[in-house]
Write a structure and sequence with these properties.
mainly alpha
Length: 261
């Protein structure tokens, strides 16, 4: 979830493709538990997240939402008084869940380096496993106003503070080297959030690989020397290069013959 909410507009083409192919699937992080097992409220929220991702918040109306659900608008209003109340519930749950996970990580890792790595890895993996919820989380704040906006802003600030404290602890211990911990915190949060903009679940990298790589790059940016983890793709390439010359050439010929069929 991006701590700097941008304009809530159209998502990238890649994300629209992911949304269209995942129609009807559960959106895990966008689904808050309401304590009453109200399946209809859950269904409304999940459908709203998908429409917000496709059309943007401003481009989605309660009437469109009702049509998508196969309901009359009056029925939707029985569950939510307006569109903003749906968005607020989604965002507040996302952030509350993130804060809970972050606090558990802080409790588990006393040392700043493994704590920072765990915070980074968790945020990236969660975003990549649910790009629709990630998109709404990154851009949703501008759809809120009044007390709802203030509450979500407070939750965002709480997340930033957990990460900032970790960076400051790393500077104090000598593990991190940054003259401006706050700016570094904002930078690495933005780095984590950017991965969901280009990640393809059907592509050559797994969510875990992207999370590991991003965490290592962020730690390097904080002045901590750590090797970049090798991806499956990189290991395969290295293995091919390390082959005996005759074997590598034969493998290349077999691949070319396969492609030409």
């Amino acid at each position: 979830m991006n701590m700097h909410s941008l304009s809530f507009g159209w998502p990238p083409r890649r994300l629209r493709r992911v949304v269209n192919t995942s129609r009807g699937r559960s959106t895990r992080r966008a689904e808050p538990a309401n304590g009453h097992g109200n399946a209809q409220r859950d269904r409304i929220r999940l459908t709203a997240v998908r429409l917000f991702t496709i059309n943007g918040y401003a481009g989605t109306s309660m009437k469109q939402l009702a049509n998508e659900l196969g309901m009359v608008p009056a029925n939707v209003y029985n569950y939510y008084p307006n569109k903003q109340s749906i968005l607020f519930e989604v965002l507040s749950h996302q952030l509350a869940s993130l804060i809970e996970r972050d606090k558990a990580i802080v409790a588990e890792h006393a040392e700043p380096v493994p704590r920072m790595h765990a915070l980074l890895h968790d945020l990236v993996v969660e975003d990549l496993h649910d790009p629709q919820a990630a998109f709404v989380g990154q851009h949703g704040l501008n759809g809120l106003s009044g007390p709802a906006r203030e509450r979500v802003s407070q939750l965002m600030a709480e997340v930033r503070q957990i990460w900032l404290t970790t960076v400051q602890d790393g500077v104090a211990s000598g593990d991190f080297d940054t003259p401006d911990p706050k700016l570094s915190t904002l930078t690495i949060l933005s780095l984590c959030s950017s991965t969901s903009k280009w990640f393809d679940p059907n592509g050559e990298y797994t969510a875990e690989e992207v999370a590991d790589h991003t965490a290592a790059k962020a730690l390097r940016g904080l002045g901590y020397s750590t090797p970049l983890p090798a991806t499956k793709r990189a290991r395969a390439k290295q293995s091919f290069v390390a082959m005996p010359k005759g074997r590598a050439a034969a493998t290349g010929k077999r691949r070319s013959a396969t492609k030409s069929r």
